[in-house]
Specification:
single chain, 427 residues, alpha/beta, TIM Barrel, Enolase-like, domain 1, 2 domains, nine-stranded mixed beta sheet, three-stranded antiparallel beta sheet, 14 helices, 36% helix
């Protein structure tokens, strides 16, 4: 039997984990009576892939942001176009600056602007938190939760048996929700398609108590997606993401009407208005803005309000392990409707996770879960932060330090930056 869409969304209404007060890290105070102004905006491109944003102020407070890692040079140039709008402004006026950046680039509206604006916006929130000596989620409305349950993403491969083994390893590590990438990314019904065989094998391997999320990454046409949904329904899929390209809201809505599987929407979207259009079209059950794509935390908090107004679940998209991860955790902490397990590509710390089952010799290693990466990408994944995020008991802890609460590893930044950078200040 299929799992009705309403049943899953209702079952996600879990009681929040209320936080305990923790000691805050102290940061430099802003001089009283001296206006705080932005004096420079710079980008750092790491390994030709990851774009970071630095915003410098006249009082020595520096904010850091992260942009989604695609077409890094284009994104860096887009940030440079936005720089003049920010110079001389008070970085704490985030809504005003967000609007001005949107208006001043209105002819360029789209993903590249949304991604560039995201990096800037995160850096502004980082400054605001540092000046206030508070973590960002306190400034977004306070901590509704302090611990965020996460799910493990199993990157695609065609072999059902291999996916089943990886799923068992993830569950042994403590995960209770898995995301399976299936089909061929932007595949246009590419063959062979082992999606249903993979889902069947994983469900058989992990049993009925583990939730399974499916992500087709825009792999199917509408008729194929509808057929695949009907084939998936007996395996009790928690929700489905991107069965067909999200650019066509009518197509996604047609699939949504044809299945009881809840539909996730928004990992590629850049504006609150696209999310509004998706809701009005009936193309979304779960909203998935990404703080490093969807016009930053400011854009995402607007989407969070939409989710609450439309009685939808908020489940932000996030594949970052760095500043984007920190921003996502702050967003989830302050958003009541973010009640489902959330995306995470970080593996559990084996010493802190649940013990391996008796007679289990297979070790949980990154190679079992993550796609192949270059040496530089691998180092950035693991070492870009001075204190990398760690999954414990299938959950992540919301940062409590001022601002985003995540500090960059200066030596790693300098080593992999495309050009010399000034990153001596972390304030």
């Amino acid at each position: 039997m299929s799992t009705p869409r309403r049943h899953f969304l209702k079952s996600a209404l879990l009681a929040p984990a209320l936080p305990a007060l923790t000691k805050q890290e102290t940061v430099r105070a802003v001089a009283p009576g001296v206006p705080l102004k932005i004096k420079d905006v710079r980008t750092i491109v790491l390994a030709d892939r990851l774009t970071l944003v630095q915003i410098f102020t006249n009082q020595g407070v520096v904010g850091f942001g992260e942009c989604s890692p695609m077409s890094a040079k284009i994104i860096a140039e887009t940030v440079a176009v936005m720089r003049d709008t920010l110079l001389g402004e008070d970085p704490r006026n985030i809504e005003y600056l967000w609007e001005r950046l949107y208006v001043n680039t209105y002819k360029l509206e789209g993903r590249s602007v949304g991604i560039a604006l995201s990096g800037i916006d995160l850096a502004l929130w980082d400054i605001l938190g540092k000046v206030a000596n508070l973590p960002v989620h306190h400034l977004l409305g306070g901590a509704y939760r302090s611990v965020v349950p996460v799910y493990s993403t199993l990157f695609r491969e065609a072999s059902p048996d291999n996916m089943a083994r990886r799923a068992q390893a993830a569950v042994t590590s403590g995960f209770t929700t898995l995301k399976l990438q299936v089909a061929t990314r932007w595949g246009f019904d590419a063959k062979p398609d082992t999606s249903i065989a993979v889902i069947e094998a994983v469900r058989k391997a992990v049993g009925d108590q583990v939730d399974i999320v499916v992500d087709a990454n825009s792999g199917w046409s509408v008729p194929t997606a509808i057929r695949r949904c009907r084939e998936m329904e007996p395996y009790r899929i928690a929700w489905l993401e991107q069965p067909t390209p999200e650019r066509d809201l009518a197509a996604v809505a047609e699939i949504c009407r044809a299945t009881d599987i809840p539909m996730g929407f928004g990992e590629e979207e850049w504006s609150v208005w696209r999310f509004k259009d998706a809701l009005m079209a009936g193309a979304a059950d779960i909203l998935q803005p990404d703080p490093i794509k969807s016009s930053g935390l400011t854009g995402c908090k607007k989407v969070a309000v939409l989710a609450e107004a439309f009685s939808k679940t908020l489940t932000p998209h996030n594949t970052s392990r760095h500043l984007g991860m920190a921003a996502t955790l702050h967003l989830i902490a302050a958003s009541p409707t973010a009640r489902s397990p959330h995306e995470c590509t970080i593996l559990p710390d084996e010493a802190a996770a649940k013990p391996m089952a008796p007679n289990t010799s297979r070790k949980v290693t990154e190679a079992m879960f993550a796609p192949r990466a270059s040496d530089a990408e691998d180092v950035l994944r693991r070492e870009l932060l001075t204190e990398p995020f760690v999954v414990r008991n299938s959950a992540l802890t919301v940062p409590t330090g001022p601002g985003l609460g995540a500090k960059l590893n200066v030596s790693v930044v300098r080593k992999y930056a495309n050009s010399p950078v000034d990153i001596t200040e972390q304030m």
